[in-house]
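Hello again, I could really use a second opinion on something today. My current little project is about how a certain protein chain folds up. You're getting the sequence in one-letter code plus the fold written as tokens. Here's the protein in full, and shout if anything looks odd to you:
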Amino acid sequence: MPRNLRLALLAAVTLGVGGCEYYYNRVPSPDDLMHAVPWFDHMIGSKAVYPYQMAGIPRNAVPGTVPVGGAEGNWEAEFKSGNSATADALVNPFAGGAAGTAQAPGPSVARLPGTVAARGDTLYHTFCAVCHGGAGDGKGPVGPRVAAPSLLTPQAQGRSDGYLYSIIRYGRGVMPRYGDKVYRPADRWAIVNYVRTLQSGAPAEVPAPAAAPPAAGGAD
């Protein structure tokens, strides 16, 4: 066989072997394309999409998360209609005191960073003090301009924890909703506890007496 032909055959074999090596070891497998697609329509039927609807899956979620199907209900329409039955029936999980918790964090009560008192203090001064004032008397930087109510009145002190929680979540009167800003239920309860601390540390405000009616008759 001529030498040039042998060299040509050797080059062809070398290229062929190299091509096979490249195809099998360097070209991505079609199976890998599945991982490059973020979502397929048929995935909606996968059991992995609904893990907490399977009885064999533990119900204790990671601290700070909400299990599927375990979110809060919505009583906004009822509350804004003037019916506070659902709001008043809410149980404050941190009602044991501002310095601690009444029940341990778990699936139904998120874990708070730090103590309830510290968390409530931070959140109150971040979202509430601008209107209600640092002392809760309604004299924050913009409080008088929007007629922010005092939190120290007998009426405010007489409201249930759930009522205050619902006001934070849904708003009421001149106060807008803050549930989309303070979105963790445990954080809202921490604010409620901090408001209770302000109320307990200040004398209740006495409503101003109604103005006396003008005297009958008068100077001409």
Observations:
- Residues 77 and 181 are 20 Å apart (CA to CA).
- The chain has nine helices and no strands.
- Confidence is low (pLDDT under 50) at residues 98-107.
- The two ends are 140 Å apart (CA to CA).
